[in-house]
Amino acid sequence: MKRLLDHTLRGYGQMLVANNRITGACVLVGMFVLSVEMALMSLGGALLISALALWRAQNDSVLKTGLFSVNGALLGALWYLFPQVPLWAQALATALGCAGMVFFFVPVAERMHEDKSPYVLFSLPYVVAAWAALTALIFFGVHDAELTRGWRALLANRFEKAEKHFLNTEVSTDMAEAYRCAGLGWSLYRRGDQTGAQTAFSRVLSLKIGVADAYDGLGWSRFRQGRYDDAVLAFRRAVALDSFFADSWDGLGWCELQAGHPEEARRHFTTAALCAPLFADAFSGFAATLSGGKAEAYAKAWSGFLSSHLSLTAQFTSTRVLLCWLWFFIGLLFHSRTSALVALVAVLVCMLGSAWRPVFGDPAFAMNVVVLALALGGHYLRLNVKTVMWMLMMTLLLALAWEPLSEALLRVALLPLCLPFNLALLGSLSFFGWLHRRGLSDERIPVDWASCTPADIRCFCAQKEVADGCWERLKKAEPGQPQPKTARSLQLPAKVDLKVNAE
């Protein structure tokens, strides 16, 4: 059991490219803060794949990297993106996916480890298993890809295309029907068709299960028509399903303000701001409940700043998401301050890049960029000016390729997931290996050091340079003796004994 928990926590740490149990525990806590259901499914996948890998693997050397547990954890967390899939289907797909990854990829990883391959599979098995699971669910009629395409089109403000996908969706569960009606209703609402939007949203009222998005849309549609009492009922249903749904708390505030209850409205606007601290409309409503003074001026100024600098999607960032990120950052600090700084710089690059291309504001793309920066920033490549410039170039290439790749995969009902990160990592290792074969210094870090922190690796590299200097002096001191053959790589001489801190 101790070994099982050890491998599982290391796997969660590898979500941030940190083979560290404390980091893994922080990541798991962050996932529980974000969604208890997602965290439990992810934990089940991580424990299952770790147990199966312990049974199938010949030794623990490969499993101690945590690179198998992370694939099971990611597969379990995948269903957070597909809440319309029934719970039994999520559990079955996770179990079969973990078994398949262990059967096919454990021998491959062991062979790569024996051959001291400079490459690493990382989360490629998860991508393959996730695509296989989604394809199987579509084939057996459990999940309809049209629903995914519709929501993607809606998020891209392609309303006519989204409505076409939603109308062509074939649903088999009440949950899927609720999400279909919610998406269709929001598309019609944003196009100004309030009658059609209310018809779509009201369809959810007849189902056994509700979706906060649908009730929220119904509330705003009724609010636009001046039916404030009916809007209040819809908003209250939404917050009953999701107490962190800031848009519905904001709607309740505006309804109370219309009814002439500023104190009650202020309480709802405050709750909305606590649920989504970047939500501009909540601060605007809060200012409307005040009767002048500095507080009103500050609230209006902050609301104007948020609305002019952040997209609506960014404004809806939940407090749970921010707390989840905070736990991730705390875990990185336990592992390495260098890694934490690299992650902050990567997030800053995404924030600045969103002004150039909207793709930088996509959370899925941003996660690929941040994890790639962590991987190349001192774990698989040495952190220096050369590798930093390479990381910036890879980020630019990912930004240019993300939308075409997403569109191509969406045609076959798949998502990029972390495929761009894995391809960029393998491509980077291959490119720097090619440079080394051409006589340049090897910037790659041996995979055997995957449990080290960037600080440890810098120390190892410094000692390696000292050892290389000693060899050079020996060559010059005894020119008549046979010269030892040494390669310009990061592999240490055999007599240098360095202990790796696996924590």
Automatic annotation (TrEMBL):
<feature type="transmembrane region" description="Helical">
    <location>
        <begin position="312"/>
        <end position="334"/>
    </location>
</feature>
<keyword id="KW-0812">Transmembrane</keyword>
<dbReference type="GO" id="GO:0005886">
    <property type="term" value="C:plasma membrane"/>
</dbReference>
<feature type="transmembrane region" description="Helical">
    <location>
        <begin position="88"/>
        <end position="108"/>
    </location>
</feature>
<protein>
    <submittedName>
        <fullName>Urea transporter</fullName>
    </submittedName>
</protein>
<dbReference type="InterPro" id="IPR004937">
    <property type="entry name" value="Urea_transporter"/>
</dbReference>
<keyword id="KW-1133">Transmembrane helix</keyword>
<feature type="transmembrane region" description="Helical">
    <location>
        <begin position="62"/>
        <end position="82"/>
    </location>
</feature>
<dbReference type="InterPro" id="IPR029020">
    <property type="entry name" value="Ammonium/urea_transptr"/>
</dbReference>
<dbReference type="InterPro" id="IPR019734">
    <property type="entry name" value="TPR_rpt"/>
</dbReference>
<feature type="transmembrane region" description="Helical">
    <location>
        <begin position="22"/>
        <end position="55"/>
    </location>
</feature>
<feature type="transmembrane region" description="Helical">
    <location>
        <begin position="412"/>
        <end position="435"/>
    </location>
</feature>
<dbReference type="Pfam" id="PF13432">
    <property type="entry name" value="TPR_16"/>
</dbReference>
<feature type="transmembrane region" description="Helical">
    <location>
        <begin position="365"/>
        <end position="381"/>
    </location>
</feature>
<dbReference type="Pfam" id="PF03253">
    <property type="entry name" value="UT"/>
</dbReference>
<comment type="similarity">
    <text>Belongs to the urea transporter family.</text>
</comment>
<feature type="repeat" description="TPR">
    <location>
        <begin position="212"/>
        <end position="245"/>
    </location>
</feature>
<keyword id="KW-1003">Cell membrane</keyword>
<keyword id="KW-0472">Membrane</keyword>
<dbReference type="InterPro" id="IPR011990">
    <property type="entry name" value="TPR-like_helical_dom_sf"/>
</dbReference>
<feature type="transmembrane region" description="Helical">
    <location>
        <begin position="388"/>
        <end position="406"/>
    </location>
</feature>
<dbReference type="GO" id="GO:0015204">
    <property type="term" value="F:urea transmembrane transporter activity"/>
</dbReference>
<keyword id="KW-0802">TPR repeat</keyword>
<feature type="transmembrane region" description="Helical">
    <location>
        <begin position="341"/>
        <end position="359"/>
    </location>
</feature>
<feature type="transmembrane region" description="Helical">
    <location>
        <begin position="120"/>
        <end position="142"/>
    </location>
</feature>
